[in-house]
Amino acid sequence: MDPSYAKGASKMLKDRKRQREEKQYNRQLRALSNLLPGSKAELDEVLVVENATKYIKHLEERVDSLERRLDSTIGEEDEQSSVVLSEDTKSDSDSDSSLPQILVYISLRDVIISIQCKNHKNIIWETISEVEKQQLSVISFNTMSFGRAELVINILAKIKEGALINANDLRNDMRLVILKQMED
């Protein structure tokens, strides 16, 4: 075998390998470029890497922001759950009060809402409807008559993916729906 032929064949194999690696690199660069928002399939590697770095920093900041927002919304998990109770209470001496008593418990992605109010037409369905408007999926609910005109509604719900629920806001929204229903 001619030594110049062996050298040429070796060089040709190295060139083919380099071309394959270059094609693979370009495919990966194009794929990275396509992942970036507002980016066209650019092959300027410096620009793609700069954009990718900026986008990763943006995503990290967004994650931090959402984590802070989630912590402030449902609170730090001291044990296994965070519990927020309504301040709307009814004492025995205030039995004519029309304000409902509402308790909201939030634990991770689970929510329990317990409502004691005057029994009015359609109040159960309006309450369930409002819960579903609040980015919650109702898992189960039960109702009980309490006394002559009182109604107790207990709702177990799951917080929908990506939703942020504030227990006080949920309680206030539920109270408004119930009070509106009681006026009708």
UniProtKB/TrEMBL annotation:
- Keywords noted in UniProt: Coiled coil, Nucleus, Transcription, Transcription regulation
Q: What's the protein called, per UniProt?
A: Uncharacterized protein LOC113705044 isoform X1
Tell me the ranges covered by the BHLH domain, including all copies. 9-59
The question of whether Nucleus is a record keyword is answered with yes
The GO molecular function terms of this record are: protein dimerization activity
Coiled-coil intervals, chain numbering: 49-76
InterPro entries from the UniProt entry:
bHLH_dom (IPR011598), bHLH_transcription_regulator (IPR052610), HLH_DNA-bd_sf (IPR036638)
Cellular compartments annotated: Nucleus
Q: What ranges does the record give for the region Disordered, renumbered to this chain?
A: 1-24, 77-97
- Keyword check for Nuclease: no
Q: What organism, scientifically named, is this protein from?
A: Coffea arabica (Arabian coffee)
Q: What is its main location?
A: nucleus
Q: Which domain of life is it from?
A: Eukaryota
One Gene Ontology cellular component: nucleus
